[in-house]
Fold this sequence. Notes:
Layout: E1 3-17, E2 23-44, E3 50-60, E4 81-87, H1 92-101, E5 105-107
Antiparallel strand pairs: 1-2, 1-4, 2-3, 2-5, 3-4
Amino acid sequence: MTMVLTTDVPTLVPATYGRYRNRITYVSGTAEHVARVRVVRRIRLADGTFDPDRAEVEVFVPEDRRAVIEAPRGSWVTPEYLRCIARLSKNRKSLRDFFDSGSFEIEV
Length: 108
C-alpha cells in the first residue's frame, strides 16, 4: 500500500521587494509538495500530548527537485527521503484513521 500526502517542504520561495515591488529574491519558506510517504509519526508537544493537526512524515523527493529544497542536513533521512510535516487539514481522508487510532507511528 502506498500513501500519497500533501506535505510542507522547506524550500526557496520567491519574494518581491523594492519601492515598486519590481525585484525578486528567493527566501527560505515552505512549499506544498505532493509525494509518496513511507513513514508517518505523531508529533509530541512539550506538555506530553500529541499535536492534533500535524504529523511528521518521511517523503520521497525526486532527484530533479532536490536542488531547490533548503532543508537542514539532519532532515534528510536518506539521499532521497526527507523528514517534513503533513497537516491533517490538507490530508483529511488519508490521515483521519491514523489520528483516530492513537498509534504513534506507521510504516507504509
